[in-house]
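Help needed: design a sequence for this.
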């Protein structure tokens, strides 16, 4: 139930002005530093940043809902002893997979930004 609720919260936050991943990212990145919070909030003006945050929120929401569905299905279809082993394993795999995907996605975005900046710099000097 816990991850299913959070999946719905993540997906529901997509209709808000700033989705859940934005809020969590600000907390982890800026903490309580007012200057860092202002800098994080200013990033929202960038359409590419908004797109990344919204995609990450959707992936996390969908992933958490899928994990909850699979755990519920395991509880109703597998023997109790098996379900009690499979359920926590599903949770670890799902959360771990979402973390790995997030890290890979952010690295890919940073590489694209660096390549764009290098191309822009090369064009400006030419």
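Sure. Designed sequence:
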């Amino acid at each position: 139930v816990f991850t299913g609720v959070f999946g719905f919260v993540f997906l529901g936050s997509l209709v808000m002005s700033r989705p859940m991943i934005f809020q969590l990212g600000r907390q982890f990145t800026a903490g309580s530093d007012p200057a860092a919070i202002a800098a994080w909030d200013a990033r929202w003006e960038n359409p590419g940043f908004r797109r990344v945050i919204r995609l990450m929120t959707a992936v996390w929401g969908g992933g958490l809902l899928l994990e909850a569905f699979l755990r519920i299905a395991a509880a109703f279809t597998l023997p109790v002893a098996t379900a009690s082993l499979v359920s926590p394993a599903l949770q670890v795999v799902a959360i771990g997979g979402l973390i790995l995907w997030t890290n890979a996605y952010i690295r890919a975005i940073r590489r694209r930004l660096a390549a764009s900046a290098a191309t822009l710099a090369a064009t400006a000097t030419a």
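The chain is about 85% helix and 0% strand.
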